[in-house]
Amino acid sequence: MAMTRRDFLKRAGLVTAGSFIGPGVLGNPFLRKALADTIGDRYFVVLFLDGGNDGLNTVVPVSDGSGTLRQDYEAARESNGSGGIRLLTTDLASTWIGTDPGTGAQLALHPAFRNATTGGLHRLYQEGHVAVVQGVGYPKPNLSHDESRGKWETADPLGINGFGTGWLGRYLAANYVGTDIPAFCVRGSIPGDFAQNATSILATSRLESFGFPYDDWYPGDWAAHENAFDALYTEAAGSAQALLKYTGDVGRATFDATQLFPQLHTQYATDRSSWSATYNTGGPNGTGTSTSRNLREVAKVIYGMKSGLFPTLNTRFFEVRKGGFDTHSDQGGAETTGQHYRLHREVSDAIEVFYEDLEDMGVANKVCIFVWTEFSRRIPQNANGTDHGSQGPALLIGGTVVGGVYGKHPDITPSVVENNDGNSPYLQGPVSTPFRSTDNRDVFGTLLKHWLMMPAANIPAVLPLDPTGPSYDPMDYWQTANFDLGFLP
Question: Is the pTM of this model over 0.85?
């Protein structure tokens, strides 16, 4: 049976990022030098909450502090029942976290983050392994899923820098070549934050089923297929023509991956069968969900790296997606059958078992999990859900993460919200500014500096500030960076 390269990539699951962009930006030697820093013996996991998570019902004000946050929350969210999504203070009694740095108001996580048996994500917070960053957004927020996602992924919200790449992709492109596979996305495509055109990224849902797409009808041809593929791409890899060489390198990486990555599944399933079952079948922490199974795929690779059994493996970046957060209707409040409750419970329990697995491997201190969403939801609820909004909280989890609450709560004063189409305004200016937002590029920059070890002086080449001048009010744009938010040492 004839098989084209497209057929191979589609069936084998390995997708390169070359189709996302042209070659221009990564040819910039200064940018490549700026990114030439290593993650070392660490791992970085991105968990994307697709659909726009309701931040106000994720990190919830329990009291007013010096302001009116709880009063404003109760004015915006109706009492539970008949479509109300308000979380009562009694609902939040077991999930208190820190206080809002701006007002001193007591904050709590959604009750779904507390598992009565195992503790869930809230237990990890209490143990100091979870950082909550409030009010994360960008200037001129866009309420389109696709456009807002793209603004986050490129870290170019105004679209003026012409990157065409993802903020993580720029890092990968400068540190790895076409024969490397530094990243693994547990999905069928490569997300925008990993987009670049220099190295290979594995995108597949399950390592167990990943492999060279042999034709089962003609097993006698398998060796010939392998030899032909290897010869074709080896010749291309030896070419002096850059594009041909890149194609050859990527093809060889694809072939090597089909031989290597299924072994990671087998090794993990053999050596860590009880952990594998916990992810898959469920237990007291309520796993057995798509999110827990997807994180198990990440655990397989990390175990392969940690065990040293696969010396050619250099995959340290991962992406997992959890959809369903577009809760326009039937969002629910604290009831365990509610839509938002079930989403948060799935994420919380999956992260908990993943973290415990990492602890058992002895690598929890070497993993940082970054949880983000493309936007939050409007402050006032609609009939029984929430519509698209602006800024919201992001989470960082890991053994090295400095737990606590960072960034100020967004302004949800009714009059302010009413003047901003139902949303909290994006605010910058001096640090003392009430309800000052956390620009997502400060979060990215802190990760680049403190986890990926990029020198601070080089980060502006990757995350340039917004323009200044009469058309750019300092209160509305990111003109002062802070790459030391504090959630990493």
Answer: yes
